[in-house]
Amino acid sequence: MFGSIDVASHIFQRRARQVLIGSAILMLPMVALHLLLTILAFDHYERFDGLLGDRGYIGVETGLVMLGLTIQSFTAHIIGAYTAAYLVPYQMGAESTVATCLRKVLRKLPLLFVTWSLTHWLILLVLWGLATSASADVLGALWILAPLVAMVSAGTLLVAPVVMTEQRGVRSIGRAWRLARTRFGAAFGFVLACALLGTMLSAFIALLPSLAESTGFITFGSLGWMVQGVTTQLAVLIVVPFVAIATSQMYLHLRVHAEGLDIVIAADRAFGASL
């Protein structure tokens, strides 16, 4: 579990350009929409509490928020496919270019949409329910729904890597579940660890403008809300590809555990890739 995250951090450091350029191209629609929503929110509500408080912006604009969450979810699925298209050959000793990986993702875009729709509808339904509920109801429901969402996410964690590396079509969903089931506890812990790490990293990056202003050396004045919005989307551009790399590495680790893929990798590095 933690080994996948550790390996992902090393790969992210060494191959940040290839990972971020391809991910940024695929994330442009999501970032544009979320930046628009953030600008609207901070333009109408001076404090972030007003954004979430007493139904605030989410209560009035539930449709736009759900559209943003849906696009973000699908884009994260696509980023997972892109990082798998890059990482798996890289770990097998081959080298893929950004353009090659993007073409692979675009060719499988219809299949990725189908697999995302079949595996993420429950999570989106839960988020819609939370977005339209009162604050007190949300706090109570989180104790039940958070573990449920984490379990569903663990079971469907490897769908994008399987789609990109194994020619199984829609059956990739079943294949991903069977792989995750071999070490479901590790997959479940991995989802929780990525959620915690991603939240902390996103919060830290998003707070950078406030920390900069607290020093007294710089002030953003009336543009503070715009700087905050841009920084928030920068956090998304970093966190989503990082988690996607860790997920692809988790896929490899589970195949090593369940199928002895490390022997195949060693043979491929010696005699040429076969996967």
Structural notes for this entry:
- The chain has one domain (2-271).
- The protein has helices spanning 2-14, 16-44, 48-52, 56-60, 62-91, 98-107, 109-131, 135-155, 159-165, 172-182, 184-206, 208-214, 224-259, 261-271.
- Helix 2 packs across helix 6, helix 5 (62-91) packs across helix 7 and helix 8 (135-155) packs across helix 11 (184-206).
- The longest helix has 36 residues, at 224-259.
- The chain is mainly alpha-helical and 275 residues long.
- The protein is built from 14 helices and no strands.
- 84% of the residues lie in helices and 0% in strands.
- 28% of the residues are buried.
Write the layout of secondary structure elements.
Blueprint (H helix, E strand, L loop, with lengths): L1 H13 L1 H29 L3 H5 L3 H5 L1 H30 L6 H10 L1 H23 L3 H21 L3 H7 L6 H11 L1 H23 L1 H7 L9 H36 L1 H11 L4
Helix pairs in contact: 1-13, 2-5, 2-6, 2-13, 5-6, 5-7, 5-9, 5-13, 7-8, 8-11, 9-10, 11-13
Shape: globular
> What order do the SSEs take from the amino end to the carboxyl end, as H and E?
HHHHHHHHHHHHHH
Helical residues, percent: over 70%
The total tally of domains equals 1
Radius of gyration: 20 Å
Query: CA-to-CA gap between the ends?
Result: 23 Å
